[in-house]
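Long-time lurker, first post.

We've been arguing in lab meeting about whether LST6JFWI would sit comfortably in this protein at all. Half the group thinks yes, half thinks no, and nobody has a model to point at. So I'm putting the question to the forum: if I give you the sequence and the SMILES, can you give me back a predicted structure of the complex? Inputs are below. Any interpretation is welcome too.
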Amino acid sequence: MLTYIDVHFIYTLPVVAVLALITWPFISRLELFKIGFVCTMAFVYTTPWDNYIIFHNAWMYKPKNILAVIGYVPVEEYMFFVIQTLMTSLWALVFTRWSPACFNFNFNKTSYTLIRWIPILALVMTTIQGYNIAVPGKNTFYLGCIMWWSCPVIMFLWYGAGNYFVKKSTSSAIAVIVPTLYLCWVDRIALKDDVWHINEKTSLNIFVVDDLPFEECLFFLITNVIIVLGGMAFDKSYGLADTYTFEFPLRYSSSWKYYSQQMQQFVRAECDMSPSPVNDIRQCLNVLKRASKSFNVASLVFPAGVRLHLIILYAFCRVTDDMIDSEPKVGVKKQKLKLIETFIDELFADRSADYDVKTSMTPRKPEVKWEQYRLDLTDEELSCFRAISRISFYLPRKPFYELLDGYRWDVDGKTVQNETDLLLYSSYVAGSVGTLCVYVMVYKSGTQIDDDKRHDFVIGKAQQMGQVLQIVNISRDIVTDSETLGRCYVPAEYMDNAAAVVNTLCSDRDPWTLGSEKLKSYATRMIRLANRYQLESLEGIRYLPYEVRGPVLVATDIYRGVACAVEASPTYPRRASLGKWDKILVSINSLYFKSLKYFFQADRCKHC
Ligand SMILES: CC(C)=CCC/C(C)=C/CC/C(C)=C/CC/C(C)=C/[C@@H]1[C@@H](COP(=O)(O)OP(=O)(O)O)[C@]1(C)CC/C=C(\C)CC/C=C(\C)CCC=C(C)C
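Top reply:
Settle the argument with this. Predicted structure of the protein with LST6JFWI, as tokens:
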């Protein structure tokens, strides 16, 4: 004989536990706030209704099957409000987190208005109808109570997030239907075992399957719609703030100003906003997808806001790097470099120091003279420039100028004489990127590194990590750098006859004549150099916001997998890479297991 608490121990809590195990790496501060808020609202909104309905005997419990009663409701039922909300929210997280929120915005005014208002009209009528038929003692009582109780809250949520819910209809449907079917199945077991009993006098006595009244199915369906819609209301609001950084300038914090901004984000119809930032982000994502499978996969595990801004940062770095690399004429290369430099000067014209950032209440839009860029850039490049200009207010200027120093190195055709040169070049083009990634992750997680010593320590490690990845990149690309760019980053000190080898790689562009063995020996030596710094650089991870520690490890481990592929190959591979499944396995291992190490002793910093 089952009791109510048995139902939780056997059927609901284990499912929540499994879902929590699957989703914990994705539960960022914002996600935690969202789930906590939806659970609290579910509890507060359902408690009076449930007391009212049990008071009117719509359903009842045998005293021996429950632990205790508060008001008219068993404690296990109060637990149910929270457990169901947790279960459905975690399940929904698995299905709804993968595409950037802004891609689900509806910019068509007519369809937006129809999708917003027609269901609201229907819900108003259903509320009134529900109120009329919810007469205690009548067989429409339970149905009527569900109708008048649920419709107002759906109406409210639909106003802000209905269009978003519709745009994401497939994942919304999976998020709602699966937990509904599961809870109906559990309900049927409990009803059969008489854990609770639905009063035939206040129910329609229509059964969806034997022993399962229609109202019970409707109840689970509607409550799951409310939970999923509630979660999506947050996703849409967060998405608006991530996309329209100047219109919604406050980042996540527990302050009334932020909550009020969030309310504005919730009610704001995205069709009243410009679609241009979203189109730019789409272009940025195309750049990432085309250029780097590794970072594309890794980006998926970052919290949504961090991910979006990392994509923008990646795309800007990628297109500027390509602008220089893909141009054969040195003169034009120099002009392009100048153009990028002018843009960076304009972006950071208001800064007084290298690491001065503008994160105050209303970040100033940088004054960029777009006409010259419209003339000289492709549409895709222009999109990436516009996108970075929307997030540059919280980024420091120094790393951008370091990136320029790296590009200048290439334009000037400087050679890499020794490992010191290799490390310097790598710190310019990738150490700088590491610093910028830290600023994105800290700002978008709503945290800050207050302590100067700790800031310097973390930035140092991020730069080191960038250098490590760049050296791996160079070890992998000896052949492509030579064939496509006529360039060599292998330190001359590694070569027996440096002038001849550099000539073969840079002028003849014929790397294979050096022999696979020699190429592999250069690569292996550089990878050994990278390995020397790699472990050290990982020490910085534990001081990053907790929600990005696992994802950073995924990004760096996937990328470092390339080094293993080079080392494991018997000959020098043309372009070593990890297969799709290897990337997935590395991600799972880094996210769920290896990252655990960085969650402990986070505050015992030996170095700062
Ligand atoms: C997840 C995600 C989207 C991350 C984006 C990271 C980012 C902004 C990368 C910019 C990459 C870029 C195009 C830079 C221009 C210079 C360059 C070519 C650098 C090389 C990158 C390789 O990119 P590529 O497009 O060639 O990729 P494929 O090889 O084709 O797959 C680099 C090797 C640099 C990469 C360096 C980083 C990502 C910095 C790593 C450091 C951190 C994430 C900070 C970690 C923090 C601590 C405290 C350790």
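For your lab meeting: The chain is about 70% helix and 0% strand. The longest helix spans residues 214-243. Whichever side wins, do check it experimentally.
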